[in-house]
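Subject: design request, 252 residues
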């Protein structure tokens, strides 16, 4: 894809699932990649995979819900590779499921802290670095849960709606400064998150499949290619857009 080779890309939640695939895809397209996550061993494995394929990457441990971690992550990215061009703010959790009336405030807040405040903090520290470079692109991971409602995961749905709001607002704040901000809204994608959510229960998995008109679940690589496209020069007129990649899940 145009305009990725030689650039610097930061991916959060990059030790697993969608973030891992995006990190690998950025590297394949020639970007230098910062792989960030809480999971150190798995994150370093992603770096090793990139290096084995001839790419350049470093691992930086950071919790996206902690402001001091995010500030350090962005500073260390710039120290490692001389600047920042692209960010995929992707780290997230599914949270503890349950109806709202039974949900503990602490469980609600944990999902908001990681899935929503984490995206705010990431953009807060990334945007000035992109402006220093004269431009760049950010892609936030929202979800089809940012466009619909759903029982038992109200914190998750609320956070993902919020990610779309943050994305649209940030896009307008920097629209004239050569920085584009978009979101991806995946449907059900086969990652460890979905394994945890269904707890190996075939019936639960079959239920998820029923929601996918295309007849299968998505693959993390199918989200990664959209993220890298949105960062590329091929998407030069695309900003503030929540891109749905869901096999038809939210078709009205
Ligand atoms: P995953 O569990 O495979 O990966 C998530 C990664 O985020 C993990 O490596 C985890 O360690 C990391 N992480 C969690 N909390 C963190 C924190 N506080 N700081 C830094 N890293 C943290 O799950 P995934 O399916 O790849 O999910 C990635 C993103 O995609 C999430 O935002 C998720 O909500 C979103 N999403 C997933 C699906 C799906 O069906 N899998 C659908 C829509 C959206």
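Subject: RE: design request

Done. Sequence follows.
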């Amino acid at each position: 894809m145009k305009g990725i080779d030689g650039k610097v890309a930061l991916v959060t939640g990059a030790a697993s699932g969608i973030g891992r695939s995006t990190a690998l895809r950025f590297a394949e397209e020639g970007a230098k990649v910062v792989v960030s996550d809480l999971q150190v061993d798995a994150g370093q494995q992603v770096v090793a995979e990139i290096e084995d394929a001839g790419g350049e990457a470093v691992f930086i441990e950071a919790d996206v819900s902690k402001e001091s971690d995010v500030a350090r992550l962005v500073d260390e990215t710039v120290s490692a590779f001389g600047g920042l061009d692209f960010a995929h703010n992707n780290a997230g959790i599914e949270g503890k499921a349950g109806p709202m009336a039974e949900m503990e405030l602490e469980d609600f807040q944990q999902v908001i802290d990681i899935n929503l405040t984490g995206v705010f903090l990431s953009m807060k520290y990334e945007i000035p670095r992109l402006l220093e470079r004269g431009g760049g692109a950010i892609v936030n991971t929202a979800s089809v849960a940012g466009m619909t409602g759903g029982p038992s995961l109200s914190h998750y749905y609320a956070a993902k709606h919020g990610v779309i709001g943050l994305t649209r607002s940030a896009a307008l704040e920097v629209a004239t400064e050569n920085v584009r901000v978009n979101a991806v809204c995946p449907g059900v994608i086969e990652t460890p998150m979905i394994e945890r959510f269904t707890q190996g229960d075939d019936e639960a998995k079959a239920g998820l499949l029923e929601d996918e008109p295309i007849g299968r679940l998505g693959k993390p690589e199918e989200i990664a290619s959209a993220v890298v496209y949105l960062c590329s020069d091929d998407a030069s007129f695309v900003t503030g857009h929540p891109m749905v990649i869901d096999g038809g899940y939210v078709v009205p």
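The domain at 8-190+221-244 is CATH 3.40.50.720 (Rossmann fold).
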